[in-house]
Automatic annotation (TrEMBL):
Keywords: Flavoprotein, FMN, NADP, Oxidoreductase. It comes from Listeria cornellensis FSL F6-0969. One of its GO terms (molecular function) is oxidoreductase activity. Belongs to the flavin oxidoreductase frp family. Residues 8-164 form the Nitroreductase domain. Pfam families: Nitroreductase. This is Putative Nitroflavin-reductase. The keyword Oxidoreductase applies.
Length: 245
């Protein structure tokens, strides 16, 4: 155990921030930390858009389901899977850019962006800041792309809101290690294996909501499976020349 691991294991999402903006130095340090993440074959296939304009944040918040902490926060970042730079380089050098439209290239860009974002999140928490990922921007990727002027061969993936928390909390219990970690071969699980974790999560939600929400993890997963969302994403990505092949 060390300070870094203690920080990682203490993570919890923050959804209530002061309106104190991050300083230029804080933002620069967070972006540098993101850029220090591993990147596949050094392609660095991502971009980060910092959204400080309140009106723009409000529009993004509406798309994301009216999440107030997109607006009232220190800074809102949008992580972009970005192959547009590679496309421009290919055109300038007379190289074939067809490979940029493959699913493999899109996955590389998605992984690159995600690794960068997690680096930023860990750096932010080490600075005493709070963070929350915002997947809700995928509710309307076309509108987000329009608002942020994102070119072809690039797409927004998720947001990351970072700021000064108004309250503190505790980490949400994760799955037991033996349900996640497999040695040498995948080891399938059945419903019986989740019983103890379901009980833990029921207790967690009951305590957090004063008994208004009582459900286990498998209940939550089942509820989510009953609704298919964001079915337009595949066609949108194709329209941006991403993941077509």
């Amino acid at each position: 155990m060390n300070e870094t691991i203690e920080g990682i294991l203490s993570h919890y999402s923050v959804r209530d921030f002061t309106d104190q903006a991050l300083t230029e130095n804080e933002i620069a340090l967070l972006v540098k930390s993101a850029q220090a993440a591993s990147t596949s074959s050094f392609v660095q296939a991502y971009s980060i858009i910092g959204v400080s304009d309140v009106k723009l944040r409000q529009e993004l918040s509406t798309i994301a389901g009216n999440q107030e902490y997109v607006v009232k926060t220190g800074q809102f970042f949008v992580f972009v899977a970005d192959l547009s730079r590679h496309h421009e380089i290919g055109k300038a050098r007379g190289a074939d850019t067809e490979s940029l439209s493959t699913m493999e290239r899109f996955l590389v860009a998605t992984v690159d962006a995600t690794l960068a974002a997690q680096n930023m999140a860990i750096a932010a928490e080490s600075m005493g800041l709070g963070i929350c990922y915002i997947g809700g921007i995928r509710n309307n990727l076309a509108k987000v792309s329009e608002l942020l002027h994102i070119p072809d061969y690039a797409t927004p993936l998720f947001g990351l809101t970072i700021g000064h928390p108004t309250t503190s909390s505790e980490p949400k219990p994760r799955l037991a290690t033996e349900l996640v970690y497999h040695e040498n071969h995948y080891q399938p699980k059945d419903m019986e294996d989740f019983k103890n974790y379901d009980a833990t999560i029921r207790d967690y939600y009951a305590a957090r909501t004063s008994g208004k929400r009582i459900e286990g993890w498998t209940d939550q997963i089942e509820r989510g499976l009953r609704h298919t969302t964001r079915q337009d994403i595949k066609d949108f990505l194709a329209s941006k020349n991403l993941g077509k092949k």
